Amino acid sequence: MKTTLFTLAGATTLLLVSCENPADNSTEATVSEAKEVSTAAATGQKWSFTDNSAITFVGSKVTGSHEGGFKEFSGHFYVDGDTLSASGHEVVIDMTSTFADDPKLQGHLISADFFNVEAIPTSTFTVTALEAKTGAKGETHLLTGNFNFHGVTKSIDIPVTVTQSAESINLKADFFINRFDFDVKYPGMQDDLINEEVVIRFDLNAKPTATEG
Predict the structure, then answer these.
(1) Are 176 and 28 in contact (CB under 8 A)?
(2) Contact between residue 198 and residue 165 where contact means Cβ atoms under 8 Å apart
(3) Is residue 6 part of a domain?
């Protein structure tokens, strides 16, 4: 009887762990209609992303979670004096560079069921506002930008942490979106449904862009 009880308890614990949604430990992005992007020239000096930057994601389903990300992306910040400019920052993601912790999943993610990279090979994040604001987890700023993903553009507000020195800038974010907002609606198997929430993490490092001369 004790063996049976311990087995049941262990199975229950395993089930609870496998069903945990990673989004529960992240911050929900505020999603709204896309904002107008200023056509005025960005102010300040351009700082480009370095090779040690990363954009990753975590998706989950009934039986567990998977991690992935993008191998190829580019972008920049603008620095005015000793602070980040209010706008002008951009991230461009090559969706064909999607990777995952499981090769079979990687192939499925780039298919029409999910990212449909053959038809939509690029995603962008264009910053429309940056406000110094302390977040619930100690973040330093509130970032607003138009996220164009899977052919859908929405404005999202996310708390970010900015660390800056004379030589480098680092911006970190840990947030989640509802994939249905971006028309990614593949449900998964009937007995292993995929959660709607997807965690996205930015770890963006930038240095002053070399000027030609």
Answers:
(1) yes
(2) no
(3) no
Q: What confidence tens digit (pLDDT) does each residue in 63-84 have?
A: 899 999 999 999 999 998 888 9
Contact 174, 26 (CB under 8 A): yes
Q: What's the pLDDT tens digit per position in 4-35?
A: 334 434 433 444 344 689 999 999 999 999 99
Instruction: Tell me the CA distances in angstroms from 120 to 53, 147, 155, one per residue in order.
Output: 23, 14, 19
Is the pTM higher than 0.70? The answer reads: yes
Query: Would residue 213 count as lying in a domain?
Result: no
- Given a contact cutoff of 8 angstroms between Cβ atoms, the answer to whether 173 and 160 are in contact is yes
Residue 11 belongs to a domain? no
145 φ, ψ (degrees, to nearest 5): -160, 160
Domain that residue 126 falls in: 21-208
The DSSP 8-state label assigned to residue 55 in this structure reads E
**Residue 108 CA from chain centroid, whole number:** 19
Split into its structural domains, the chain has a count of 1
Spatial CA neighbour of 125 closest among 93, 147, 154, 102: 147
Tokens of 113: 């069921």
Strand partners of residue 208:
47
CATH number of the domain to which 180 belongs: 2.40.128.110
